[in-house]
Amino acid sequence: MRNVFFIILIISGIVFTSTSFAFAETYSRTTSSSLLVDLGPLDIVAKYDLRFNIITPSEIEAGDVVEITLVPKSSTVTSTVTFDGDKVGTFPADLVLGQEATFGIPGGYGIGLFADSRAHVLPKVSGPAYIVSNDWISLDSMTAKTFRVSVNENIRNYDSITLDINTLLDTEFGANLNVVLFNQKLASDTYRLEPSPNMKVTIPLKKTVFTNLSLDVRDGTCQGCIQVKPTLTDENGNKVHSTSIAISVDGRSSQSGLTTNQWSWNFSPGYGSHQIKAEFYGEKSKSNKAITYIKSSDSQGFTIKKATTLSKQTSSNSLSSGLSCGSGTYEKNGQCVAMGPFDGLIWFFEDLFRQFGSSSKNTIDLDNDGIDDTRDMCNTKPETYNGYKDDDGCPD
Fold first, then answer.
1. The dihedral sign for the CA sequence 187, 192, 197, 202
2. Across the beta sheet with 245-249, what order do the strands follow?
3. How many CB atoms lie within 10 A of CB 391?
4. Spatial separation of the C-alpha atoms in residues 127 and 205, rounded to whole Å
5. What domains, with CATH codes, occur in the chain?
6. What is the pLDDT of residue 114?
7. H/E segment holding residue 143
8. pTM for this predicted structure
9. Contact of 393 with 378, CB cutoff 8 Å
């Protein structure tokens, strides 16, 4: 018999599909590899189609450890045989990992072919995670195998991780001579096939962050006004930025769309004692869609007091200089001077003019917006302080 030799031609390809379930994703992979066997005038091309299902969670919570399952699926090895350049036929056989697949050649003078295959996989992961046991996994049967992935608590700016699974296929391929009761292995050898590229599976991440909202309240810059400062932090004390803080006063909605970690504009709940409440309703992070901030709130009691003006009391004998003059005298240039026949009348009109001038300086502000009515264009409607015409006394 002629010497038997094998020329190996490896042709690899990968096909991906995915199927969504309620709590898991299943990815199917087909790896195709071929061997060219030269037995003199007999040429054999053996094509392997090896299939896996890879089952992953639909998403992984930060800090969790999850299992990934590899399931070998129905596979085939198909041999195309030619003799002296003429095609004899194509002969498929079921390929079961760890078992020998055999198929005969019609008109092949008792020559039969066989293949015995085993697979090995090495998973890796990129992103804020690691493989718990980073070793090769042998698949020498159709039994499912699992490995574990641990996701870090701090996912930084990652919203997913990517599995990168390298697969090797060890296969023994050969030919037998089966004549009557005679069974002789003609030749066989073991080959390692490495499909490329590796299979990549992306799994979304999820992180739930508890928040703490604290509220500060202070007097505003106008009469009857207040300003609030809602401070939002995460569970580690880091400040969280949001522009969706809502303020209610005594259970009634008052302001919305406030920005965290800064003082608000003026708004006027009215004089008296009030209960001020700030609420954060929760939202997705604007920088990482995997992060969800949980709602929180805080309340503060605050009393808005009316401004009081001290009246100036004037007496002929009680003076700003502290000098006290007796009856019939008055203070002049720091001295008590006796009153002349017309001094009392002159003093009366001087004091009257002083009182008139002092009262004219007391401003009137009917709408309590901090702008006196001599300048207020809308003295019955309070000014809206928003950076636009804040000095005309009118709402915008």
1. positive
2. 252-258, 245-249, 272-280, 296-304
3. 12
4. 10
5. 5-206 (no CATH), 210-304 (2.60.40)
6. 87
7. none
8. 0.67
9. yes
pLDDT, tens digit, 9 for 90 and up, residues 1-60: 333 333 334 334 444 434 333 468 999 888 788 888 776 777 889 888 888 999 999 999
Residue 69, strand partner residues: 55, 146
pLDDT at 205 over 70: yes
> Do the beta carbons of residue 58 and residue 68 sit within 8 Å?
no
| Sign for the pseudo-dihedral over CA of 287, 290, 294, 295 | positive
CA proximity to 293, closest of 228, 232, 246, 204:
232
Q: Which of 276, 306, 275, 310 is nearest to 370 (CA)?
A: 306
Tokens coding 175 = 């030919």
Residues 6+ apart with CB under 8 A from 89: 80, 81, 105, 106
* Confidence at 391, pLDDT banded by 50, 70, 90: confident
Q: Is the distance from CB of 151 to CB of 201 less than 8 angstroms?
A: no
Gyration radius of the chain over CA positions:
45
